[in-house]
Amino acid sequence: MHFLSAARSRLVTREGLRVEKDAPLSLYTRFGLGGSASYLVDASSEDSLREAVQHITAEELPFVVIGGGSNLVVADAGYQGVVLRYTAKEVSLSGACVTADAGANLQKLVDFTIDHGLAGIHTMTGIPGWVGGAIYGNAGAYGRSTHESIESVRFFDGAEFGEFSNQQCGFRYRHSRFKDDKSHIILSSRWALTPGDAEALRKQAAEILAVRNAKYPPEMKCAGSIFKNLLFAELPPSAQKEVDPKVVREGKVPSAYFLERVAAKGMRNGDIHVADYHANLIYNVGNGTARQVREIVDELKARVRDRFCFEVEEEVQYVGF
To answer: Residue 2: pLDDT above 80?
Structure first.
């Protein structure tokens, strides 16, 4: 595949752009599997991103935008096109509002807010990935989600730069309008937070991180929970009757509750395993493949569907399938 024909030579020397040919995406995703992208393009400024998108679209090449790769399953055949990342990563403070570029590590943002005595996203400590991905998937943990603190999101739609208010972002549980319309590339965000005691926030965050690291060790090749939790009110009545009220929190039922009942724990398909201590954790013990991941995911979805008459939905995103 020719990348941007004559324009490629300009892009590879363009300030703010990095172009890698035949980029092994297993190195850029936490699952550590999948094939290569024809090209990986990193843009570290708004101007360089705009130029990259304009050249890619002018050449009519397929492209996909990713973030930190913590929630991706890449096909074994890779991606025949351009994988684009916006890598600007500045985090800054103005009063009780924090501005963060999409390419900033989410943990950097969380630590920054704690250091400045700002509460609101300290419970998201330990969630891997970048800020842009957290907004895209409305990430959250321990009773807090991204949408509760977001004030606005700046984006590029392929032609113009713009900004959405919180309401315009279309947030709902583990979802945003950016999932529905992938032409809108997240650039930065403003977070409205609440003053708090830095030491108290740091202590709570440390306790949460210890629990998270025990469940999802940092060195584990996984994407965290593979399936979204369920909204109790949206379950079919027959499934609602089987739910122990004690497991319902903030109107949600853990997917693991149902997965345990279809014998998910300990399942194996080559080097892709379901944890024997957590039914919603699928991980790669070494040389697992994307095909093996999909086979386990499809099997678990079928078991839940056959037993409880509803679909569990993945949190992970797929590239190249």
So the answer is: no
